[in-house]
Each structure stands twice: as C-alpha cells, then as structure tokens.
Design brief:
- This is Fatty acid desaturase 2.
- Residues 1-20 are annotated as: Disordered.
- Residues 1-11 have a biased composition (Basic and acidic residues).
- The strands form 2 sheets. This protein has a 5-stranded mixed beta sheet with strand order 1-5-4-3-2. A two-stranded parallel ribbon has the order 6-7.
- α5 (110-125) runs antiparallel to α16, α10 packs parallel to α17 (422-445) and α11 crosses α17 (422-445).
- It contains 17 helices and 7 strands.
- The chain starts with 22 loop residues before the first strand and ends with a helix.
- The radius of gyration is 23 Å and the shape is globular.
- It is mainly alpha-helical and 447 residues long.
- It has helices at 26-29, 60-64, 72-78, 82-89, 110-125, 133-157, 161-187, 194-208, 213-225, 247-254, 265-292, 296-342, 358-365, 373-379, 385-390, 399-412, 422-445, and strands at 23-24, 33-34, 37-42, 45-48, 93-97, 368-369, 419-420.
- Among the domains are: 1-106, Flavocytochrome B2, Chain A, domain 1 (Roll); 133-226 and 268-342, no CATH class.
Amino acid sequence: MGLGKHLKDPDPTSNGKQGVGNVFTWEEIQRHTNKNDQWIVIDRKVYNISNWTKRHPGGIRVISHYAGEDATEAFTAFHPDPTFVRKFLKPLLIGVLAECEPCHDHDKSAAIVQDFRNLREHAEKEGLFQAKPLFFCLHLGHILLLEALALLLLWTYGTSWTSTVLCIIMLTTAQSQAGWLQHDFGHLSVFKKSKWNHLLHNFTIGHIKGASAGWWNHRHFQHHAKPNVILKDPDINMIHIFVLGNTQPVEYGRKKLKFFPYNHQHKYFFFVGPPLVIPVFFHIQILKTMVSHRLWEDIAWWLSFQIRYFLCFVPFYGFFGSILLISAVRFLESHWFVWVTQMSHIPKDIEYENHQEWLAMQLSSTCNIEQSAFNDWFSGHLNFQIEHHLFPTMPRHNFHRIAPRVRALCKKHGLSYEVKTLGQGFADVVRSLKKSGDLWLDAYLHK
C-alpha cells in the first residue's frame, strides 16, 4: 500500500450530491483543481475526490495530479483489479459528462485515446496481464542464492582481498536484481491473493534491500502518472543539483539561479549522480519518510534487514568493516540503478504539464533499449520502458509480446517509438545533461 490509510469499507458520506443525474461539462470540471477541491473523470463519470485524497492508498499526490482531467487510463493502469476499487469510488460519484462532451479533456486526440483502449482490451483478453508466479519465484531464488554464495565464499576462503571483491560483486548483483524484483511486486498481482503480493513486496524491498515499500509506492507511482512532468514527477526533482530538459535550464538562467555550475553538470554528474543516489539521497529520504509517516511495518522490515546483515557479516569483518562492505555494495548498486533508470528518461522531453494522451505522454518521456538476453537481465526488462510505462501492471515476461503492437499503433498515429543500444542510452544521458547545461549558460549570460 502507499502512504495513505489501508482501504476500508467505503464511507457512505459523499463529497457531493450522489447519483448520475448531475451533468457536467469539461469547463466546469476543470475549475476543480485546487488542493481542497478536486474532481476527476473516469469512464465519463465525475467524482469529487476532495476528501478522498488523504485516504488514497497510493498517496495524495498521485491522484491529485489528475484533478480536472480524465483519469481513465491512469486508473486502469495502476489498479490490477479495477472492479474491486470501483466500490470505493461509488460514494464519490457526483455526476456524468454531458453527452455533447468528448470522453477526453483538453485537445487530446479521440482516435489515439480509443485505439490505445482497444489495444489494452485485446491484451487483457489474450491474458497478457496474467503473471507467471514461477518466473518471479525463480528470480527471487537466484537473488537468495547469490547472497548465500557470498557467505559461503567467506566461510570457505576467509576475508582475503579476492574473497572480499567477489563477495561485493555477488552482493551488488543480488541487491540490484532485488531492486528490479521489488519493482515487479510493487506493480503486479503475481499471486491471486493480495496478501501474498503485499508480503513478497515488503520482504524483497524491506528484508532483502533495507528500503521502504511505502516510500517507493509514493514516489514511483507519481513518476508513472506524470513521467518527466515538472513539479509532478519526483524523479526529475534534482533539488537544484541538475537542470534537465529544455525549459527548466532556461528558467533558471533567466532568473540568474546558479546553485551549481550547470554548464559543467555533465562532468560533475559522474561524481554526484551515480555514486550518491542510493547510499545518500535515497537512504535519507527512506528514513525520513518512514519516521514522518509512521510506517511501522516498513520500519520493522528495515530493521530485519539491518539485523540479518550485521549478524551475517560482523563475524567476518567486524562492525566497522561490515559498514564499509555495505557502503561499497551501495556505491556500486547506485551506479547500476542510475544508468539503467535514467537512460530511458533524462534524454527525453522534460516539460510542464501539457495534457497529452496517455500513449503520447508515455512515449514522449520514455524510450526502449534493444532486447537481448543480457539487456533483459541487466535492466530487469526495463529495457522495454515504453511497454512498462503504458502497461505498469503487465508482467515483464510479456513485454516482448505486446511491443510489436505498440510499435504498429505508434506508426499509425505518427508517434515516435525510439529504440537505442545500451551504449547509446548511457551516452545520451551525458549528452542531454551537456545540452541542458549549455541552455542554462546561454540564458544566464543573456541580458
């Protein structure tokens, strides 16, 4: 679950007048986008979510990002069982769209919206959203095996430099692969009973990785809801360390903001980004989120990781040596994580909200990396970033099956479906940072 409260029986008290007798236009709906007054549309039904946002299991922000908009695609994308969730929407129903109004808001293309909905419907009928539990259990097994082999290596050969280096490599690989696996459990219903999915997600992210499921949900679903949208996607909130895209650098430059020498950000990225994201930035965020939001279950899982880790490695390296060991693992894991996740996003469009169709929005902010056995394993199948963003609840072992149809749909509507090599993806991260830095410098020097 997210940072909101766990789902309980729906509150019978509506936020407005219930029923479908009320008819609204988009002009009326788009007036309700303030913090304490928010309406959304799902399947042409209008809901007043003003009082529900604080109870929303995914957190306040992810649902609020769609205030005044049609949230049908986002609602379907994030809920593996929409039928179950709809009973919580029923008390919030206040009316419907007028018959003369299109099903989509702003200037979205009706053809793109409908064609994408048809594609998803066909994928559902073909069972492409059905996960194979064995696939994910085998991935979990190979992660646990790597950790066990690292310990066996130390027991057998001691703490020589060779053993230590091999141990770090195995632990880094296990941690990185656990990151991709917890990502799966966070999105999917791998098992029919939700309690098992909840348990596996917490076990993988909490006990194996020492992180927080609540923190991850709150952050990651915002990223999927509005990828690369300034002020809405936390993944592009670089706390003034970097400026990204074409718009933000110019804004900073014109305002004479110089928190860092951004024209050199493509150089200091190597010393600030990959090495520090997980061991410093994420670690601070995770602890702060767990404590401030009183995520007691996450804290318990986090503690279980700390206890297990130190019980396993203190006998070999001592307390301070064990801290150095996990620091080395986090340092390497952070490089792996940053390059894999950012190669598909930072080089793409990073702009303010422009109300694109779900298909167009995801395509403008993501790209794919060529498929290969290594790329699939190395990235946790996030080399199929386009398919993952379009269908977050689709298991990764089916991405290659839906990809040709997504490509055909893009071709039909003249939308860019970008595929790169792994090397090109890495290089484009640096190129895009340099380009944004140059834009900042030009705006900063311009009078």
